[in-house]
Design a protein that fits this description.
This protein is an alpha+beta fold and 334 residues long. It is 16% helix and 11% strand. It contains 6 helices and 11 strands. The strands form 3 sheets. Strands 1-2-3-11-6 form a 5-stranded antiparallel beta sheet. The longest helix has 15 residues. The protein is globular.
């Protein structure tokens, strides 16, 4: 909790002098995802690893199939949230120091980088293997441009539609999460009660008051703990990536740990999936928080930093690589 209290003060020093670049070491190896869990039909495309220049570290990217209706095309997504192991090279310019500076532009887009933080921006939560955080939407986008310049591939942030599709393991949204007009005619709304059920006012006096009923969210929270870090189990801190169960596509921490930057329909940043500070009901595939000025309210600089969020130690990101290979028929992973 002390780290959270002093966080705005640390972030306000972001534009101060340049510290020695930290040593980047590989994160703990990512455990392999289960083979075709849940019967999801994956494309024939294989996972691959993107090396980070000037660092003994690679980002694993896994194939995400397109949607059945064709509105979402196949793409690759990083198996985990981007960690400090990769982000350090970008923000501390370790590739420049190693004589591996990227091209100045990617197409018509300039390769830009944030100011170097004077103090570690990890807020004391942990560094190696932990998700990078506190970066602005623009900072996360700039990382994608930088990595594209180095790799020759097209990296970017996912759209909200792509992110939710991947978070669901490539599956269609359950009927209960769709508007009532899209539900099967035989499905009753959750608010409907059987005709034989008595109104609350007619229940026997022996019944317990509603306030004494067990929490209906308890089972959901228990299941969430197998895959996610959130308010009930995080101890108010982020945790190393890939320590919980992966989803059906082999993607870790899609819910919880840090909220993840996505591109909204209007092109602005939206944080999806909830994070370590959020209660279970806000750690869902539909959870979304549009970028807010409140996330940088305590930054004393004028103008305020466009790269770092003084009050946003809960947001990070993962990346997407556009699938530019020829289309192949879907096939079950054996």
């Amino acid at each position: 909790m002390l780290a959270l209290l002093i966080a705005p003060i640390l972030t306000s020093l972001c534009h101060a002098g340049e510290p020695p670049a930290p040593k980047v070491t590989p994160a703990a190896s990512i455990p392999p995802a289960a083979t075709n869990p849940g019967g999801v039909h994956l494309t024939a495309r294989e996972p691959f690893k993107q090396a980070i220049p000037a660092a003994a570290y690679s980002i694993e990217l896994r194939p995400v199939p397109g949607s059945a209706d064709g509105t979402i095309k196949p793409f690759f997504m990083s198996a985990t949230e981007i960690t400090w192991d990769a982000f350090d090279t970008y923000i501390y310019r370790l590739d420049d120091d190693a004589g591996k500076a990227p091209p100045a532009t990617v197409g018509a887009v300039a390769v830009t980088r944030p100011s170097k933080p004077y103090l570690p921006p990890d807020r004391g939560f942990g560094h190696e293997g932990y998700p990078a955080m506190t970066m602005s939407f623009e900072n996360a986008k700039a990382f994608c441009v930088w990595l594209s310049a180095h790799s020759g591939k097209t990296y970017r942030l996912p759209t909200e539609q792509e992110w939710e599709h991947a978070a669901r393991g490539g599956a269609t949204a359950p009927a209960t999460e769709r508007p009532a007009t899209e539900r099967p005619a035989t499905e009753k709304p959750a608010t409907e009660k059987p005709a034989t059920e008595k109104p609350a006012t007619e229940k026997p006096a022996a019944d317990k008051p509603a306030t004494e009923k067990p929490s209906e969210s308890a089972p959901a929270a228990a299941g969430l703990g197998e895959t996610s870090w959130f308010e009930a189990n995080s101890d108010a801190s982020t945790h190393p990536v890939a320590k919980k169960k992966a989803n059906a596509l082999g993607l870790f921490d899609m819910l919880g740990n840090v909220r993840e930057w996505c591109v909204g329909p209007d092109g602005k940043g939206v944080a999806r999936g909830g994070g370590y500070i959020d209660p279970a009901e806000k750690v869902t595939v539909t959870a979304r928080e549009p970028s807010s000025p409140k996330w940088n309210a305590s930054d004393p600089q004028i103008p305020k930093s466009t790269w770092w969020l003084a009050d946003g130690p809960f947001v990070g990101f993962r990346i997407v690589c556009e699938d530019e290979s020829p289309a192949k028929p879907d096939a079950k992973t054996k």
